[in-house]
Amino acid sequence: MPSEFALIDAIARRAAVRDDVVLGIGDDAAILDVPAGRRLVVAMDTLNTGVHFPDDTAPADIGWKALAVNLSDLAAMGAQPAWCTLSLSLPASDAGWIDGFLDGFLALAALHDVALVGGDTTRGPLSVCVTAHGFVAPDCALRRDAARVGDDVWITGALGDAAGALTQWHAGDERDPVLRARLERPTPRVAAGLALVGLANAAVDVSDGLLADLGHVCMASGVGAEIELDALPVSPALATAFDAARRRILQCTGGDDYELCFTAARRHREALTAIVGNGDVVMTRIGRIVPGNAVVAFDGDGNPWQPPRRGFDHFEG
Ligand code: ADP
Ligand code: MG
């Protein structure tokens, strides 16, 4: 079995570099050059086997997702990603597993010009912890506490796909490949997050479910929100696989979609629609920010609707 140092060496050999990495993998710590006039934005997320991905998930998919969820957090801040670090806890020193993992991890890193600059490698239950580092201009970050009464609420992409894939997996049903890809290879909405700077007020990425994550924005901003269920974007794959009632629950409470939910003043509707025309992802207006402190979803008849549970919480029974 390769030693810890051989594993780290194998990682270092594959990691890309950037001009702003003064010192990367190999010393006690990395030295990085933050551009003048930019703030450093830092996010960290952990994936644990059995909790965040099914046990039979391919190493490359775990690698992709471990970075994707972190880039999604940077996107939700409107930040430009630059660097990341990687803490790996592995049950055994398995060079083949690491190689597969890096295939996914580094493929996504390359798409966003992100350099892996350090990390930690230990023995233990399979667990992957990543930090991602990016830049934002002063006072330009998309914060959770910046939603204003009268704002529209928007969402990128489509909702419920990842939860749909998970539901099929739990039920032992055949897994739709499109839904499955949305669960295993989520697309961090980095370009959308950058395009929203100057237009959006508040933003959050949907990792725990729309109602729960929008609830965090409302709590931080001291406002409420109204959502129109019929306006929620649905992918053709989800529409085919689930009936309307089950779909609604997946769209409102399903985690792991990594879409951006954001609020923006009405005067920016046209500019936001123009981004949609340009960009790689659709943005849909799904509701509005109102006085109060609750997120309320309304059905097509204008009746409030409650899901059986609002979203995912690791410490909730
Ligand atoms: P130390 O004992 O000083 O903490 P390590 O032996 O843990 O050093 O790490 C040596 C170098 O390898 C450091 O630069 C560290 O950032 C890097 N490194 C260790 N594990 C990883 C990993 N999984 N991914 C990327 N870099 C790593
Ligand atoms: Mg050291």
Biggest beta-sheet profile: 7 strands, mixed
Cα radius of gyration in angstroms = 20 Å
- Beta content: 25-35%
Structural class: alpha+beta
Shape: globular
Order of adjacent strands in the largest pleated sheet: 8-10-7-11-9-12-13
Topology, number of strands: 13
Separation of the first and last Cα atoms: 40 Å
Features:
alpha+beta; binds magnesium ion; binds adenosine-5'-diphosphate; 10 helices; 13 strands; 317 residues
Overview of this protein structure:
The chain contains 10 helices and 13 strands. The model has no long low-confidence stretch (mean pLDDT 94). The protein starts with a helix and ends in a 12-residue tail after the last strand. With 317 residues, it is α+β, with helices and mostly antiparallel strands. α1 (4-14) runs parallel beside α3 (95-111), α2 (59-77) packs parallel to α6 and α4 crosses α5 (177-184). It has helices at 4-14, 59-77, 95-111, 161-171, 177-184, 190-196, 210-221, 236-241, 244-253, 269-278; strands at 21-23, 31-32, 39-48, 80-90, 115-123, 127-136, 152-156, 200-205, 224-228, 260-264, 283-290, 295-298, 304-305. Bound molecules: adenosine-5'-diphosphate (ADP) and magnesium ion. Residues 8, 11, 25-28, 86, 88, 116, 118-121 line the site of adenosine-5'-diphosphate (ADP).
Lay out the secondary structure:
Blueprint lengths: L3 H11 L6 E3 L7 E2 L6 E10 L10 H19 L2 E11 L4 H17 L3 E9 L3 E10 L15 E5 L4 H11 L5 H8 L5 H7 L3 E6 L4 H12 L2 E5 L7 H6 L2 H10 L6 E5 L4 H10 L4 E8 L4 E4 L5 E2 L12
Parallel strand pairs: 4-5, 9-12
Antiparallel strand pairs: 1-2, 3-6, 4-6, 7-10, 7-11, 8-10, 9-11, 12-13
